[in-house]
Structure formats: C-alpha cells, structure tokens
Design brief:
- The complex is a heterodimer of chains A (674) and B (171).
- With 674 residues, chain A is of the alpha+beta class.
- In chain A, 26% of the residues lie in helices and 26% in strands.
- Chain A contains 21 helices and 30 strands.
- In chain A, the strands form seven sheets. An eight-stranded mixed sheet of chain A has the order 3-2-8-9-10-11-1-12. Chain A has a six-stranded antiparallel β-barrel with strand order 17-18-21-20-19-22. A six-stranded mixed sheet of chain A has the order 25-24-23-26-27-30, with helices on both faces.
- Chain A is elongated.
- Chain B is an alpha+beta fold and 171 residues long.
- Classes of the chains: A alpha+beta (674), B alpha+beta (171).
- Chains A and B meet through helix 15, strand 24, helix 18 and helix 19 of A and strand 4, strand 5 and helix 5 of B.
C-alpha cells in the first residue's frame, strides 16, 4: 500500500510567462475618432455579441449591457478615497475618464450564482447530472489593466490548476476584450505596486488609449485585427502616440509605489500575532464588501434548491466570503468567530498564501476594497502597519480522485448499516468506483444526497469491495445519511486528502491516540498495522471517549485487546460505578506510561484541543515532532482547495491535509481564529 | 506484548517508593525517610480508602491496581471523576489542611498501596525541612497535574452540540 502524508493533488504548475502580444500584420497604432466609437459597438453587436461596457447606474459606473456609444459615461468621472466614491461631471466628452467602478468583469465571468449539478432521488436510487452552461458571446469594453490582471488571476485559479471550472471556462472562452489604458487614477489606485498597470500588457483583443478627439487603438489578437480592418481608422501619427503614452506614464508616476511588495509574503506570514489585527478589527464590520468588490475573490459555497419532497435538487455555486459568520463553521463550532481572524485570513490570503497556492498575488491593486469599505479601511496602510519566516509546502503527488470537481459525483450503494452508539452509525458502501478501494488510511470522501449539502466524511474502513463511513448525527444532512436503508444510493467524490504515513512507520513503534469519533479515520490505519503486524514494533492504542457508551467499535476494540500484541487502553471522561477502566483525559494514560517514545511514530485524531495536549504529552515521552501526525477538521465545500473554506494559513485542509505532521502546522495547531 | 505500566510489586518500601512516579521525583534521602514510616497494604476491590468530607487519615502511593475517585451526585449516583493509576497518590488531603477528603477513593480492583499515617507524616515534615523541601514540590506537581487534566475534562471535548440550539445547521 502506498501511503504518505503528501497531498494527492498536483499543485498549481508554475505559471507560464505571459504570452507576448502576437505580432499582427496590422496591429497599429491606429486612430479612431470619438464619433466612430459607435461603429465599433455596432460591429460587435452585428457579430452576435452582447456588448458589456461602462455605464452610469445608481450613482456609479458599472459594467452593464450597452446598446450604443450613447450609453457610455461621456463627461463623467469618479472621485475615490477610503470609504468614498462619488461621480463628478467633466467639461470634456471623454468616455473613459474615470478609474474603476464597484464591479469589474468578474460578475460576467464568475457570476454570483452558477449551476453545478442536478441530483435526483427515486426511492433508494440517486443520480447526478452536471449542469450545462451555455453562456452568450460577450464583448467587454473598457476593461482596465488591473481588471485584465484580475482576469488573469481568475484564469489561473479556475483554468490553470489540476481542475477546470467548466462554467468559468465556457464563459471565458466566449469573451472578446476591448481594454482601455488608464489616463487617470484615483487616490485608491495602486496597480503600480502590484505590477499590473496602468498600461494593459496583453490579454486583450483591442486596446485603446483615450486622447482629446478619440482613441489610439492597437490590436492584440487576430480577432482584434479583424475588427480594425472593418473600422473607420487611420494610422495614428507620432504626436498622438506620444500624447497617449505620456498620459499613461503620468498616471503611473502619480501613483508611485505605495505597497512595496518585495518580501511581503514572508513579512506578512510572520505576523499572525501582530496586535494590529485587533486594531483593524475594532473598525472592521465584517460586512464582506471588500470581498464582493474584489475582482479576484473566488470563494464560494454550494447551495441546494430542492423540490418539496427532495426528489429533484439543483446544486448551485454561489459567491461566499471569508468574512461571513458561517464561512469557517463546522458542526462543533466556528474556527473564525472574531473579526480580527477573518480580516487576517483575507489579507494574508491576498498578499501571501495566494502565492503559495497559485504563484501570484491575489491582489491587482484596483483599490476597490478601499473605496467600498464603509469604514474606509485602507489595505495599503494596513499592510504597511503590519510587518517579516518562510513558507514550505508538502510536495504533491499526481494521484487523482474520481469525480474531483464539485459538480461531479459517482455513486455508491449502502449494503449494510451498523449502529455504533446512540448517535453514530456506520454505513458499509458497495457498488463503488475502484478509486475508492485504492484509497489510503486517513483519506475522506465528500458525501452527498440530493437536497443536502455535501459533507466531508472520513473513510473508516477500506474493504476488498467496500468502504465504510462512520457518521455522527449532527444535523439534517447527517441524519439523512444515517437514515438511508440498505440498497439506497449515495453520491461520492474522492477519496480526497492526505493519509497517515503507514509505510514510514515500518520498523518503528506506533502510538495511536484518539478521542470520540476521531477513532473513525484511524481505523484504516489500525487495519493496515494489523495486516502487517510483524513489520512494526510495539503498538499502543489510547482511546478516550466521553462515557463508556460513547465508544465506537466496541467489539473490535475488545478483539484488538485480546490479540495480546497491541496495548489497548480505553479511558472515559465520566463514568458510573459499573466502569472499572480508567477515568480522565487520554493524556492521563500517556503521562503514566513507562515506554520510551524515541523510536515511535504518533498518530493522533480528535478535537484540536485534545490533540494539542496529546502532542505535548507525546513529545514529553521523547517522540520527535516530525513523527507526530494529527488531523484537522474544517468546513469544506469543494474538497479540492478551491472554495476557500478550509484554509489554515498557507494550508488547505482538504488538499494539504487532513493529515499533517506537527512541523507542517507549526504554531497553527490550536491557534485561535485561523 | 503489552508493556508493563506499573512497577512490579515488591515487599521493600524503599524500592517500591523509588520505582513509583511519585517517589521517582524525590531525593533518595526523602525516599528513605518516607519509607521509614510507610507500610505496604493490600486492599480488596471495593474498599474505601478516603471518604469525601471525612478526615483523611493516611497519604498513600498506589503501587498496583486502580483506584476510582468518586463523588456522589444525588439522582445520578456515584460518578467517577478520575481514576488513580499505579505510581500516583491518593489522600493528599492528609497533608493539606483541613485534612478532609475531596472525593471517595475506592479500590476498583485489588490494590496495593504504600501507606503513610497522616499525623506522623505531618510531624516528620514539620521537623525535617530538607524532607519538606523535597516532598512539597512533588506533591504540588501531583495535584497540579490532576488540576490540568480536570480542566481538559471540564471542556467536555467529545460532547456534541445539540442541533438547533443556536441556529439551523446544514449538516
């Protein structure tokens, strides 16, 4: 059995260098007189495209469908400052004499709600079909350099990694981009620091720079060149070209470099405990405005819309925000209750852990989060107020699960059910995709039924043709799973996540410490140890439960203890007179044990606070931190590191975990609010 | 291949005390002085060694077997709060005023203890400051360890949230 604690996913490959603008026979520069801009819009419409351009709506300049050049914000500008956005009227008739509105092209490419799949449930049978997307052909006019960069960032997130977001791919492939170089900047702009503007450097079909009487235009793709051939343009004379490039250079000079980014990643990640997070939280309202206006924020949740009897249920992906109250919630509590934790999560992701994840910053310097923050929190000032250690990440192995992406499920069938305790039941699943049978101890599956949210559930046994899921009733979705009957089907994705490094422990002693339902993800590890018992030294199993009645797999534990070659110690938090075993916390037993842990591997699973105390007790018995492995529990929606919910610093629990070594987590284990 | 978790029984109080967790943290002189007033005692399962609220007569080090610390909760009966495993102590209230037991210590299997009479032990600690300087930190450590463990227990980490108590949960 191959098993290790490395992620089963390939990480994002290094980004290819940005493609240079192709050499096109008639790329320009050309001059398009302002009265002829309407011709461009008509051409795009006659090519069957819906034209999305800047237009004044509700006191802002937004991207919306436009019918003609009359819809453009002629003579309208914007004045932006922290917590402030106002439209102003200009004496000139320029149409791009503003900076950026509250929403960039994200809304059109990664809409707030997109269909994922439709599930059907007919008696015990369930089926899932991916939702189809047929986006209309769009032309986006007036896209700024920072917005092009943001599209590049989202391309990297959704198209550049091991999994492709089909909805995004379909929309993105149908877009023609007419970019505009900025000849004005707001006080909130900092694209110069993020290296994204103010001049567009590729990724467009046409790019325009506005001058007094019209536009200096260049083509950036064959499709752009074809448009130019059909436009009433003339070659731009040198004076105009210089006027245009000077205007852009003046904007760059005016912005300066407000956020020096060299070393920012390491500087920021060294500041988990900065008192400044508290200070920011005193002002932050956790309203999520910054994430909603951000052109790169992509966190999402999966919501279900089902008919009343739960037979047909559509799954939609909807925007979510790391600032919302439920974002980091699990059945037992919330990992980021405090505003300071949410702000820290957002800022460290944008400017540090995004680089670990995708190789780029998650910020393009558009300044929207500054202007649209109701209390005027200025991310540039906060970054500079928080100041300097290095990120390492587990190497990834390219083993892919089945039905990896959130819209996609395979099915399994319940072939047996076993009650374990009053509120815990084990389902035995058969009829499985072989990928599940090849899973490794510690991995989990995303499990779903139509009309219920998908849940991450540890695989508690890998049989020859079956897997087992041990589920505790924590709410309606888990109750529905537990309520299934033999023969019923279930939706599955996986197996996902990292595994216990069984092979590395060969030749060593093993200490397994667990509590409560934490025994479930360790059961396949115990199976693996027993299957090759003579390849390991002594094996100790310490299992804590709330009461004797809360112990899982009681018969199996008795069987393990009866073997004589495994030291099985069961302890409970509270008991009546009938219990003659030990009472107390599980570390109570480790403290009093006499074995030497210097040759041991420790595998620990339970509530985070218990794992912390256990890791301490194991280290006190001379286990080295590198040989102590723990699992983390976090809210998961996608299971592939893309929905953002399970992020812990630079790690994603679904992808880099759930099994981690202590040094991998460093001081993140048991830290509040991460 | 279960490893022994308690020292093998011995009839020699010095050897027995030295081999215990409690005794391992004392100076050799202190071990000898304590052993001088200690007696090995075998108690049958079900024997009460201390009683909550009653004067504790003796301080003991458990050598073999398991002792439950229990408290009576009306309508719930006797609740076991903690078990004392070999090497640890029972009856520390024999040393600490007001010398009243904080729980019922009940042997839940045949238990062998090394027992020191409270009054003699207190007199010895009063008269021998070097002994007191060795015993008190160790005693405090034993009690502190129990306190820390009790706090973790108090967190009730394995309890599940009642659903619907605060809001509707999706899971």
């Amino acid at each position: 059995m191959v098993s290790d604690d490395r992620s089963p996913f390939p990480s994002w490959p290094a980004a290819a260098p940005a493609a240079p603008v192709p050499a096109l026979p008639a790329a320009g520069p050309w001059f398009l007189a302002r009265p002829n801009l309407g011709v461009l819009i008509d051409l795009l419409r006659s090519d069957g495209r819906t034209v999305i351009g800047p237009t004044v709506e509700d006191g802002t300049i937004v991207f919306a469908e436009i019918a003609s050049a009359d819809d453009l914000p002629a003579g309208v500008g914007d004045v932006q400052a922290p917590g402030s956005y106002r439209l102003v009227t200009h004496a000139n008739r320029r149409v791009f004499d503003y900076t950026v509105g509250p929403q960039g092209p994200k809304r059109w490419l990664f809409p707030p709600r997109a269909p994922l799949s439709v599930g059907h449930r007919d008696g015990g049978a369930v089926t899932f079909e991916p939702a189809a997307t047929e986006p209309s052909r769009l032309a986006l006019i007036g896209v700024r350099a920072c917005e092009l960069a943001a599209m590049g960032v989202q391309d990297r997130v959704f198209l550049g990694g091991p999994f492709t977001d089909e909805d995004y791919r379909a929309r993105r492939g149908n877009v023609l981009v007419v970019a505009v170089n900025c000849t004005t900047a707001s006080s909130t702009c900092f694209c110069t620091s993020m290296g994204t503007g103010p001049e567009a450097r590729g990724g467009y079909d046409l790019v325009m720079t506005e001058v007094d009487d019209g536009f200096v235009v260049r083509a950036g793709s064959p499709e752009g060149a074809d448009l130019i051939a059909r436009l009433p343009v003339r070659a731009a004379d040198a004076g105009l070209v210089v006027e245009a490039s000077d205007a852009v250079a003046r904007v760059a000079a005016a912005m300066g470099d407000p956020v020096p980014t060299a070393g920012l990643h390491d500087r920021l990640l060294a500041q988990w405990d900065s008192p400044h997070w508290v200070e920011i939280a005193d002002r932050c309202l956790a309203c999520a405005n910054c994430t909603l206006v951000c052109p790169t924020c992509f966190c999402s949740s999966v919501v279900q819309r089902s008919d009343l009897d739960g037979k047909v249920s559509a799954s939609d992906r909807v925007w979510d925000s790391c600032f919302t109250v439920g974002f980091a919630k699990v059945a037992g509590g919330n990992f980021r209750t405090r505003y300071r934790d949410r702000y820290r999560q957002w800022l460290t992701h944008k400017f540090a852990t995004w680089i670990d994840q995708f190789g780029t910053f998650g910020c393009v310097g558009c300044g929207r989060c500054i202007a649209w923050c109701p209390v005027g929190i200025d991310v540039r000032a906060e970054l500079m107020a928080i100041a300097p250690p290095l990120a390492t990440r587990a190497e990834a192995t390219p083993v892919l699960p089945v039905a990896a992406t959130p819209g996609d499920y395979v099915t399994g069938r319940v072939i047996a059910k076993r009650p374990e305790t009053a509120d815990v039941t084990t389902l035995v699943l058969g009829d499985l995709d072989p990928a599940f049978l090849a899973g490794r101890p510690g991995q989990f599956a995303m499990v779903t039924l139509p009309a219920f949210p998908p849940l991450p559930i540890s695989i508690s046994r890998f049989g020859r043709d079956t897997i087992e899921l041990t589920i505790r009733a924590a709410g309606p979705a888990t109750a529905a799973l537990i309520g299934l009957s033999t023969g019923d089907q279930i939706g599955l994705r996986g197996p996902l996540g990292t595994s216990w490094p069984v092979d590395r422990a060969v030749g060593h002693d093993v200490v397994v410490v667990t509590g409560g339902i934490g025994l479930a993800p360790l059961r396949p590890l115990l199976d693996a140890l027993i299957a090759q018992r003579n390849r390991f030294g002594t094996i100790h199993l310490y299992y804590g439960a709330r009461t004797p009645a809360d112990q899982l797999y009681r018969e199996e534990l008795r069987g393990l203890a009866a073997r004589g070659d495994i030291d099985v110690q069961l302890i409970v938090d509270r008991a009546g007179e009938e219990w003659t075993g030990p009472v107390g916390v599980v570390t109570h037993l480790i403290d009093r044990a006499t074995w030497d842990g210097s040759r041991s591997f420790g595998f620990v699973c339970g509530p985070e606070r218990m794992m912390e105390a256990t890791a301490e007790a194991l280290e006190a018995r001379d286990l080295s931190a590198e040989r102590i492995f723990v699992t983390l529990e976090r809210h998961m929606e996608c299971g592939i590191g893309l929905c953002g919910h399970c992020q812990v610093g630079r790690l994603f629990v679904c992808r880099d975990g759930p099994v981690f070594s202590l040094p991998q987590l460093g001081d993140l284990l048991g830290r509040e609010g991460i | 291949m279960t490893l022994p978790t308690s020292p093998a029984p011995t009839a020699d109080p010095i050897a027995a005390l030295s081999a215990s967790w409690f005794g391992a943290g004392l100076s050799p002189e202190a071990v000898a002085r304590l052993a001088g007033i200690a007696e090995l005692r075998d108690v049958a399962a079900g024997t009460e060694l201390t009683k909550e609220g009653h004067i504790t007569d003796a301080f003991s080090v458990v050598l073999t077997g398991r002792v439950a610390l229990r408290m009576l909760v009306p309508e719930r009966g006797m609740v076991t709060i903690l078990t004392v495993e070999p090497g640890d102590v029972i009856g520390w209230s024999a040393i600490v005023p007001p010398h009243r037991g904080t729980a019922n210590a009940v042997a839940i299997e045949p238990v062998r203890v090394l027992e020191l009479q409270g009054e003699r032990l207190r007199a010895l600690l009063r008269s021998d400051h070097a002994l007191a300087a060795s015993v008190y930190p160790r005693l405090l450590q034993a009690v502190a360890r129990r306190l820390a463990a009790t706090r973790l227990q108090l967190l009730d980490l394995f309890a599940r949230e009642e659903w619907g108590r605060h809001e509707v949960q999706p899971w």
